[in-house]
Amino acid sequence: LKNLRLSVLLLLSSFVVRNSVKAHCKDNKMVRHDLIVALSLYVIASASAFTVGPARIASRALTPLCALPADPQGVNNPEENNANGGEEHALPSESDTDILNSPAFLKRKLDVLKSDIAQADADVEALKVQVEEGKAEWGQQLDDLQLEYGKIQERMKVQNEGGDDEATVKVVRQMLGVLDNYDRAFGVLTAETDKQKEIEDAYRATYDKILATFESLGVTEVETVGAEFDYEVHQAVMQRPSEDYEEGIVCEELAKGFVLEDKLIRAAMVSVAA
After folding, report:
1. For residue 111, what are the CA distances in angstroms to 26, 114, 136?
2. What phi and psi, each to the nearest 5 degrees, are found at residue 234?
3. Count of CB atoms within 10 A of residue 171's CB?
4. Which residues contact 46 (CB under 8 A, 6 or more apart)?
5. Which residues contact 242 (CB under 8 A, 6 or more apart)?
6. Residue 89, C-beta contacts closer than 8 angstroms, at least 6 positions apart
7. Which residues face 268 on adjacent strands?
8. Helices (DSSP H) in the chain: which residue ranges?
9. Cα separation of 2 and 48, whole Å?
10. How far is CA 36 from CA 17, 30, 41, 236, in A?
11. N or C, fewer C-beta in 10 Å, the chain?
């Protein structure tokens, strides 16, 4: 009966050892623990055995341990573990387990991209054919529309420019009354004292600024004295004999005239030599 109990104990230790060997590649920590337990059972059983049979059974159970590799991953070698940073498991690298970067997956991805590009090229060619067909059917009408659109843009541009010119003419005409008052004042008043000369200089500076503004807007003065009388830009107020100018020549300017390019803002009032 005692031998039977020992045999059962040795069989159990054999079962533990064989299962531990099977799990060797999966969990090295568990293998190490199970091996220690199995060897302990074997020692107890051998010390208490009265026959050779149970010990022989246990030796057969432990025989596969001799065929195990000599700790290929350094699991049971503390020195190697410390040299490797204390890691107990040599796990595979991320590049070995990343399926998205595997050659097979990348090759399949490249094939899909090539297929998509080919499909896109085919769609582009089909659209080009449709465009050519549309041009053949509606090309003349499209050309007519583009021509009409260009004419509309040109008319709008001319109208806008004309509107700017009209606004400039209106503003200048409103300012001409101010300039006439300056001219009449300068022709009548004569500065005598320093204070009066200072005031006159201030008025003349303002007068010159107004004329400079007109020039910046494209407004120019009508040529008068010494020019031949032109009924389009001159308004003859009187005609008198002149020793300095021939007949038909403007000999005196009574009021300034201004033009904006080819538009007359105000005719110059002049005296003409007779």
Report:
1. 37, 5, 38
2. -115, 145
3. 13
4. 55, 58
5. 249, 251, 273, 274
6. 28, 73, 75
7. 234
8. 2-22, 28-48, 52-62, 78-83, 94-97, 103-188, 194-216
9. 9
10. 9, 10, 9, 134
11. N
What is the dihedral sign for C-alpha 59, 60, 62, 67?
positive
pLDDT in tens, 128-185: 998 888 888 888 888 888 888 888 888 888 777 666 788 888 889 989 989 989 988 8
Helices (H), 23-87: 28-48, 52-62, 78-83
Tokens of 213: 């503004």
User: Is residue 240 a contact partner of residue 216, using CB atoms and an 8 Å limit?
Assistant: no
Nearest to 221 by CA among 209, 233, 235: 233
- What is the rounded CA–CA span in Å between residue 46 and residue 13? 12
Cα dihedral 41, 42, 43, 47 sign: positive
The crossing angle, in degrees rounded to 10, of helices 52-62 and 2-22 is 0
Using pLDDT thresholds of 50, 70 and 90, give the confidence band for residue 225.
very high
CA distances (Å), origin 217, targets 35, 176, 208, 260, 268: 106, 15, 14, 8, 19
Contact criterion met (CB below 8 Å) for 54 and 7 = yes
- The C-alpha torsion from 160 through 163 and 167 to 168, rounded to 10°, is 70
